Amino acid sequence: SAPTPRERADWFPGSVWASVPRLTAAEKGFTDNELETRIVDLVKGENFSPAYLKINPKGTVPALVVPYAHTVDEGISTKFKALCSTDEICDFLDRSTTKSAQFSAPALSPATIQNADLQKEIIARVHGDEVDPNALLLVWRDEAERKAKAEGLPATFLRGRQEALERYAREVSSDAKLSEFYANKLKENGGLLALLEGKGDSTDVQNKAKALWHNVGKTVAYLEAQLDVKAPFLLGDQVSLADLHAGAWLARILACAGATSISDPDSALSALESNLSAPVGPKTKRWIGALLERESFQQVYGKGLH
User: Is 0.90 surpassed by the pTM of this model?
Assistant: First the structure.
């Protein structure tokens, strides 16, 4: 008989928000047989291809393509839907039970209404535009930071994306809606790339970068306030989706601060503190240590913070 249609996760190894479903899948014990994965290369702009935009019109990763339950039976052509928000995807994976797991996968969502509300609040906080980890990677606070980013990954990323957008725009020139999407993206991406290359006044970008770092400091303090001295994780003794979202966010913040490896949390935290106006609190330090020791974080960040 034909294999049962299964979910497929579209992701990219360096993506901050695609890391949360990867952490969730690892915590839940999903095997490669149960969850198919496909890499969408953001540096090559594959997320803006016309084919991918049919899956996720925003052109972001992650996306989770899932079969509609009533179309999985034999003899019916399977229909799929795409989940395109990190939050939605992780909730779906948390509710899905893995069939071949050697252990009973724990629920990553809290049982009490109070904790469910707190989880929502924490997740919304780290996904807020005012602490956007993707923006933080691409902006700079001063000329020295601009030059470093102009010679590093941010410039490579923006250039790869610009080339892809130009190519896709030519391919779909007869499609008005897609043409408008590409024109807007080309202007936005090209404008930032020009400033990164030193063409033009980047005062607005520098102000944005400073505001982002200021808000990161406030959010790190917020996490410290949520943590309990007696419990290792944000909602208590058990790891939850709140920890995975906030942990992936913080991993990117650490990378933006210049940290590279999870094997030395102390030096990663020192790098972070050199960018903040206040030290990282003791509960947050312990929480980060507990997360980085987990197998899921070793799997996703073992080759480096991103």
Answer: yes
